[in-house]
Design brief:
- By secondary structure, this protein is of the alpha/beta class.
- It contains 11 helices and 16 strands.
- The protein has helices at 2-15, 17-29, 38-50, 111-127, 150-156, 216-226, 228-234, 272-292, 312-326, 343-349, 379-404; strands at 56-59, 63-69, 78-84, 135-141, 167-178, 182-184, 187-190, 192-201, 205-206, 242-249, 256-257, 260-269, 296-303, 308-310, 331-333, 352-360.
- The chain has an 8-stranded mixed β-sheet, with helices on both faces. Strands 10-12-8-13 form a 4-stranded antiparallel β-sheet. A two-stranded antiparallel ribbon has the order 7-14.
- The longest helix is centred in the C-terminal third of the chain and has 26 residues, at 379-404.
- It is elongated and about 80 Å long.
Length: 405
């Protein structure tokens, strides 16, 4: 029965391959930034209606959701499938014939691939709905790339008011992994993330008379160096932690010491207690150095996404289903990642698994996510569509078997 189901789903995925790839190319041509995805939302909703579904739009402003009610006890169990669909503020440099037509905006994180793959899975599951033991919730999430995150926005807007799923699954493309492979990790997988914003204040003046000024550039430089101890000497060697600076602006000139310096950065880790302790240390070190040098420091910490925890049972299920669908030689156990995901908000509420799908084009140089020349192997869309549908089908089927036994 399992092999027959796999064969059926693979045939359906292959038969709709061109349609789903065209969905991806449409999304890639017309990317929209976080909290601006109105046309994307309407495009997704229109496709879901074509599949015979009744989507709800405007959840969390620009999110979309639809239910596939199975033919066997549809109210007994619910599995949710999630994809994100916002783009990034980057000028595309791929040279693809379907490159972004929206200047300065690009799908450089693969969200177009995620959304088209979930649309493909939705069409497959709709075709097989009479055989589903329960229901499937399809979540198309906006604003993953911008705080407070589309997941929280959608939940705050009543996403789960009528039905709270029993399990939830999502995936992200992985340029480091060859197309045709998937990977996952049990337990803690992706880091929490907080954004840090410093304003270091001094007294500006002429660069030739620094003794008459309080130099905020010097103060800020000491802060940057001193904060390295937060990771190297305060974080446990057993607790992955990253503190990085991405912006340092002192708007003076060659001979002008400015009044203030603006800095921005991130801190990421995997423990909530240490996360708060690190915030406190960063604040004390920053303000202490500034005051000791005659200046002052204002620090705003934008408390962001929690770390992603994959449920052991859900993740083992993805692994087992991956081995059945792709072959055991195509499924990998992965290491922790310091990247972050607002899927963590879903995983805090519902047993979850967030896994990876390889998209690397063979014989091409590696290009990371969030880069203007990112290209994904479109064969991964057929694979992801089929596997996501198969995993959801089996999750419902397994639940039914456990209930009977």
């Amino acid at each position: 029965m399992t092999q027959q189901l796999i064969d059926t789903i693979k045939q359906l995925a292959h038969g709709q391959r061109e349609e789903v790839i065209e969905c991806r190319r449409h999304l890639h041509r017309h990317p929209e930034l976080s909290q601006q995805e109105y046309k994307t939302m309407e495009f997704v909703a229109a496709k879901l209606r074509e599949f015979g579904l009744n989507p709800k739009t405007g959840i969390g402003r620009t999110g979309c959701m639809a239910m596939i009610r199975g033919g066997i006890e549809p109210d007994s169990y619910c599995v949710a499938l999630r994809a994100d669909y916002d783009a990034l503020p980057l000028e595309e440099a791929t040279g693809l014939p379907f490159a972004s037509e929206n200047p300065g905006v690009m799908h450089a994180c693969g969200h177009d691939m995620h959304t088209s793959s979930l649309l493909g899975a939705a069409k497959i599951l709709s075709a097989l709905k009479d055989q589903l033991h329960g229901s499937v919730m399809l979540i198309f999430e906006p604003s993953e790339e911008m705080y407070p995150g589309g997941a929280r926005m959608m939940m705050d807007d009543g996403l789960f008011d009528e039905v709270t799923p029993d399990e939830i699954y999502s995936f992200h493309c992985l340029p480091e992994m060859e197309c045709g492979r998937i990977g996952m990790r049990k337990g803690k997988y992706m880091a929490s993330t907080d954004e840090l914003y410093w304003t270091v204040k001094g007294v500006g003046g002429h660069g030739a008379t620094p003794h008459l000024s309080v130099d905020p550039i010097l103060i800020a430089s000491h802060i940057v160096v001193a904060l390295q101890q937060v990771v190297s000497r305060n974080a446990s060697p057993m607790m992955p932690t990253t503190l990085s600076f991405g912006k340092f602006i002192g708007s003076g000139r060659t001979n002008i010491i400015p009044d203030e310096v603006k800095m921005e950065g991130i801190i990421r880790t995997f423990d909530e207690k240490w996360r708060l302790e690190a915030h406190d240390k960063i604040r004390k070190i920053s303000c202490g150095i500034a005051e000791s040098m005659g200046g002052s420091c204002d620090l705003f910490i934008d408390y962001g996404y929690p770390y992603v925890v994959n449920d052991d049972q859900c993740t083992q299920q993805v692994y087992d289903n991956g081995c059945a669908y792709l072959g055991a030689d195509k499924v990998d156990w992965l290491d922790m990642r310091m990247t972050a995901e607002d899927f963590a908000f879903f995983a805090q509420k519902i047993p979850a698994c967030y896994f990876r799908v390889g998209v690397h084009v063979p014989d091409t140089p590696f290009c990371n996510l969030h880069r203007p020349n990112l290209i994904v192997d479109e064969r991964s869309i057929e694979l992801a569509s089929g596997f996501v549908a198969y995993n959801a089908f089996r999750a419902l089927e397994n639940r039914c078997k456990k209930t009977v036994s």
